[in-house]
Design brief:
The complex is a heterodimer.
Chain A lengths: L12 H31 L2 H32 L8 H32 L6 H27 L3
Helix pairs in contact in A: 1-2, 1-4, 2-3, 3-4
Chain B lengths: L1 H26 L4 E2 H28 L8 H24 L4 E3 L5 H23 L4
Antiparallel strand pairs in B: 1-2
Helix pairs in contact in B: 1-2, 1-4, 2-3, 3-4
The chains are: A mainly alpha, B mainly alpha.
Chain lengths: 153, 132
């Protein structure tokens, strides 16, 4: 039976809430960034590209940190920190890959924002690369949502 | 069956959260172009209907839950409040979408942040399940 259907001790509530809320902010910010970036492909709009990169920095990154801290906390409370369960493995794998791709996207985005702040135009190639990275992370998180909710053995 | 329902319920909850983040960007002065507004509205609509439909189906599917359980009633009330607040914001954003930033009137901004509050409380109820 899935853990969502199990009645949990009250002490598990807050770390699990942090984990899910952080994941929701992270996924929301990645969705926002990818939609803005795809919309900017035709117009090369500075406002869309800047807001997309800012949403990665100000929402996706904090969301990731909260989500990951919550994950470690609830895994520790449930005694799953060193577990070799498949769904835990998928969760950590996707989380680590997601962190790596998010950092690359943030670096590329940061360079582009710096260029825009100096009066330059945003690089359309950088915008396409970040779109690809962010979309890949989003797909990976959908797999994680499936693994976390169905908990395959 | 249960796993599929739970996955779809959680997935559509993520759609709802993604829509809230997108609308927050609009309210905070982010650019509003037609595609992003359309995606936000679709995520909110699909997320809203999905969480409600799959949530009720889950409650009917599981013997340990009843549709009249206090926490499920609370979740339904919060869902209605969130959708009421969301409708107010959507009405204000109608006709906007040229990639510009706009200043929403104070009531719409208030409605949006109330929607955020209702969605956060909905998540609290879903995770905590008080009284379950």
């Amino acid at each position: 039976m899935s853990a969502l259907a199990v009645i949990r001790p009250d002490s598990w509530f807050f770390p699990l809430f942090l984990h899910i809320a952080g994941a929701m902010v992270l996924v929301g910010a990645l969705t926002l960034a990818s939609v803005y970036l795809i919309a900017s492909w035709r117009s090369n709009s500075v406002a869309l590209i800047r807001t997309a990169y800012m949403s990665l920095f100000y929402a996706a990154l904090p969301g990731y940190i909260v989500f990951r801290v919550g994950a470690e906390w609830i895994a520790d409370k449930e005694g799953l920190a060193d577990s070799d369960l498949t769904w835990i493995g998928i969760g950590y794998g996707v989380s680590d890959l997601g962190a790596l791709l998010l950092i690359v996207a943030l670096v590329i985005g940061g360079i582009s924002v710096r260029r825009m702040n100096r009066g330059g135009t945003p690089s359309p190639i950088a915008a396409r690369i970040v779109t690809g990275l962010v979309s890949l992370v989003l797909i990976a998180y959908l797999v994680a949502v499936w693994a976390m909710s169905t908990k395959p053995a | 069956m249960y796993d599929a329902l739970l996955f779809l319920h959680v997935l559509t909850a993520f759609f709802l959260a993604a829509a809230v983040v997108m609308f927050s960007s609009f309210v905070l002065g982010g650019p509003i172009d037609r595609p992003s507004k359309l995606v936000a509205e679709i995520l909110w609509g699909v997320g809203g209907l999905g969480t409600l439909g799959f949530g009720i189906w889950l409650a009917l599917n599981r013997p340990e839950y009843e549709i009249w359980d206090g926490w499920i009633i609370a979740a339904l009330v919060l869902w209605l409040l969130a959708n009421g607040a969301g409708a107010r914001v959507s009405r204000d954003l109608r006709g906007v979408g040229g990639g510009s930033t706009i200043t929403l009137d104070r009531r719409a901004v208030f409605a949006h942040w109330m929607r955020v509050l209702w969605v956060v409380l909905l998540l609290v109820v879903m995770v905590w399940k008080p009284g379950a």
